[in-house]
Amino acid sequence: MNYTAAVITVSDKGFRGEREDTSGPAICSIVERCGLEVVYRSIVPDEQEDICRELIRCADEKKVALVLTTGGTGFSPRDITPEATKAVIERETPGIPEAMRAESMKITPRGCLSRSAAGIRGGTLIVNLPGSEKAAKENLLAVMDGLVHGLDMLASSGSANCAEEGKK
Fold it and tell me: Which residues are CB-contacts of 108 (< 8 A; sequence separation ≥ 6)?
């Protein structure tokens, strides 16, 4: 099945045009190579209301299957993407950020500092990725196969045959 995706970059400097967004395009490239169609992109400031509005727009209005955010997952007082995500999702999917952090820990001991969240709103899966291009790509690649299977499960009317090993 073909799925749609949206990529939302959360960055004050990116929003103001003071920093080039490299994470968003890198994420789009990976998603498209995996067969998903990126139908929406945006850059928003680190403001909970703006992040929530974009997540809701993608899930409720655009009916995008997968929403990936990049940025706002660290320890800075302005890093509130996980809080915005948790405010709009209906069901958490904690295994996704756990898997990303576990893979990151193989690369850097700082991988444990990510506060990424993930969850489901309606038929949309929302996943937070780090803001750096390198970390965003590493985290996404660590879970991409699982995300596609999760999208299959969300799109199915019952079970997506979870017992099939390696099913995409």
Answer: none
* 3-state SS, residue 66: strand
CA distance 70 to 131: 5
**Architecture of the structural domain at 4-155:** 3-Layer(aba) Sandwich (3.40)
Where do the DSSP E strands lie in 28-152? Answer: 37-44, 66-70, 91-92, 118-121, 124-129
Tokens of 30: 């990976």
Does the global pTM surpass 0.90?
yes
- Strand bridging mode 91-92 / 37-44: unpaired
Is the dihedral angle over the CA atoms 154, 63, 89, 54 positive or is it negative?
Answer: positive
What's the pLDDT tens digit per position in 63-97?
Answer: 999 999 999 999 999 999 999 999 999 999 999 99
Residue 167 DSSP class: -
In the chain, where the domains are located: 4-155
